[in-house]
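From the pipeline queue, job 12 of 40. The input is one protein chain; the requested action is below.

Action: predict structure.
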Amino acid sequence: MTAPVTPAPVTEAAPPPAPAAPKEPARSWADEVLYFVVVDRFADGDPTNNEKGDTKAPGTFHGGDLKGLTGKLDELSSLGVTALWVTPLLKQIPGFVTGAGFPDWGYHGYWADDFHALDERFGTEADFKALVDAAHARGIRVLLDVVYNHPGYNSRYLKEKPDWLRSEDKNTCGQDDLTSCVAGLPDFKTEVPEVAKYLLDAQLDWAKRSGVDGFRLDTVKHVAHDFWKEHRRRTRAEVSPDFFLLGELWGGDVESLAPYFTPDEMDAGFDFAFVGNTLGFLQGRGRAVAFDRYLQSRGKVTPGHHLAHFLSSHDVVGALHQLKGDMSLFRLAAALQLTTTGIPVIYYGEEVGRAGGDWPQNRSDMPWGKQAVKPGAGKKRDEALREYYKRLISIRRAHPSLSRGSHEALSTEGDVYVFQRKDAASGDTVVVAINRGKTRGAASVKWPEGWTGVAEVEDLLNGGRTKAGATLELALEPLSARILGRVP
């Protein structure tokens, strides 16, 4: 029953509101350091929502949830992380599949069974909102991973909306990117307006209700451009003009991402070529000049758009594993990741030495060492490596040239590679030197123009100062890096 309306008392006209304070410009995504978490494998904050079963098996739910992640946000903020990407949170198919050779559940979030419900094993909608709010309180943006291309195996949508899907059971899967059933998963007919509207309505509703800052878009090339154009239009109109879209185009690079960037369907995409080029260079495959050409090519990204580069992920073999556990080389890879163009993506645990391995080991539990945090309590972690990451991230965040600057090779002779990053807007100039060799190395380069009038520069990574001269003389220990910039 509706209560009677009480007439409002007559009052004098209120004075006009004070003019709003000018809005602080949004932080550029070029400056972000993104941390990627598989929620189930990170931290268990609510044991009451855990799935029963063997939490040591590779395909089971291990208990990580939104409350656990929220409780460990200080771990990320102290590392220097400025943005967080979480795996999908929708309700997953209820059972398991055995195609992997072992029982495999939807702990990763990519096998949705209901686009209008969160999976209780990850937590509640209130938990999701609390995570976003707590991250924002720490200055950390949040990206939610969303999947439009497919639901999970044997999803209820196959029975409830059979005309919406292509499936192997009905022999309706195509052979091209848009109509194939990726990994045998039912394929949504996203080209059908009714299907597209359902999926968009559901995911945009989660964005509005949670307050996330953007989406990480799964399986981009398996959905048509028309869908992505409508998706961009609606996110800007209904969520925020600044809503950020990071797309996963499998095997993507500057060239293959351009058809999505030029019509402005998304803001950024993953550069899958980064890890292979970087590890190849560090392991001595190819000359420094060739690696430099690759880094130069990354600067040709469509204006206003970004590349995101990673060393490890949930879909590829971890870099430390590829390097056979060689921590010296891995540190150099991290140094290159955090001093080059693009948004660096740190995969959970690699900053403390989680080796990753091949699938499913690349989705192992976050190592927490002596911290009583399940499921990875007691798992060894490398705190010295974490301190190294903290130092690299702090350097990147303090120097706009490393995130926004131009790239110029200064020396590509032998095993010593030296390059300059320069930001014209701020005048910031940083020189990075890498010695991939197993013996001491040296390089002599012209004193950078960006340091004209500077009496001395500092090794921002290792400490120590170098006085100005006609040339910059660089000595490097075996398998080491130096990052030089102006003395604060």
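Job complete. The radius of gyration is 24 Å.
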